[in-house]
Write a structure and sequence with these properties.
The chain has about 240 residues and is an alpha+beta fold. The chain has 2 domains: about 110 residues, Nuclear Transport Factor 2, Chain: A (Roll), CATH 3.10.450.40; about 90 residues, Nuclear Transport Factor 2, Chain: A. Helix content is about 30%, strand content about 25%. It has 5 helices and 8 strands; from the N terminus they run ααβαβββααββββ. The strands form 2 sheets. Strands 1-2-3-4 form a 4-stranded antiparallel β-sheet, with helices on one face. Strands 5-6-7-8 form a 4-stranded antiparallel β-sheet, covered by helices on one side. Bound molecules: 2-acetamido-2-deoxy-beta-D-glucopyranose (2 copies). The site of one 2-acetamido-2-deoxy-beta-D-glucopyranose has 3 residues, from loops.
Length: about 240
Amino acid sequence: MHPTRGSSFRIIFFFLIFHFFLLATHGFHLLDPLTPIELNQIQTIVKNSHQDVNFHYVGLDDPNKSNVLSWLSQNQPNNFPDHRVAFVIVRINCQSHEIMVDLSTNSILSDKVYEGNGYLMLNNEEQKAANDLLLKYAPFMALIAKRGLNLSEVVFDTLTIGWYGEKNTKRVVAVICYHSDGTINFYMRPIEGVMATIDLDEMKIIGYRDPLVVPIPKADGTDYRESRQDPPLDTHI
Ligand SMILES: *[C@@H]1O[C@H](CO)[C@@H](O)[C@H](O)[C@H]1NC(C)=O
Ligand SMILES: *[C@@H]1O[C@H](CO)[C@@H](O)[C@H](O)[C@H]1NC(C)=O
């Protein structure tokens, strides 16, 4: 997934630079997003109170309107707010926690286990860990060899299995694969039929199937990037 990764890095980099530019020129506002320093602070606070933490969401807990108005009336807009709270969602020991972190006092304001339906979002680390399981899974390696595919060109897609109203569903993903060899548009080249289901809490393969060998479409003509030809439309009407 190099193309995707490259462009998202560029976007994050742009926003970081943009953010620091704003800080340099305009100072802080109460509703500014969490800074890199604050994100590190949150990570330390949460990790000090829990082991084996998997972060899934970290964001500013927006102060309510009356707080914002009173801050604006009492402060120069350039002053860093003296009270900031972050809302954090983490997975710890097969449980989803919603944690409020007070950045001004370096403490956890509240920490509750979410008992409702549905699960938190997938994060990159667990998707990579799930994909890496397949790279060590003998039946999958045998399949790649049998089809004469290049393992370095295999791209994984990690999808949740969904929630269909059952009382207890495990936190499971279905991993499907593509062979990008010769194209950037790997979605056009599925390794049809292969699917592994992986329990993310246990981090192990709980299901695997490759029932049939379907030919992989050829890579020619699958590139969707901007053409180097002249523009097809004549705009001089
Ligand atoms: C706004 O938040 C403060 C605490 O930060 C609370 O005391 C106050 O009741 C809240 N106001 C509203 C309208 O929710
Ligand atoms: C497999 O793919 C890698 C990465 O694209 C490439 O460097 C290598 O030459 C390929 N191997 C074969 C046997 O084609």
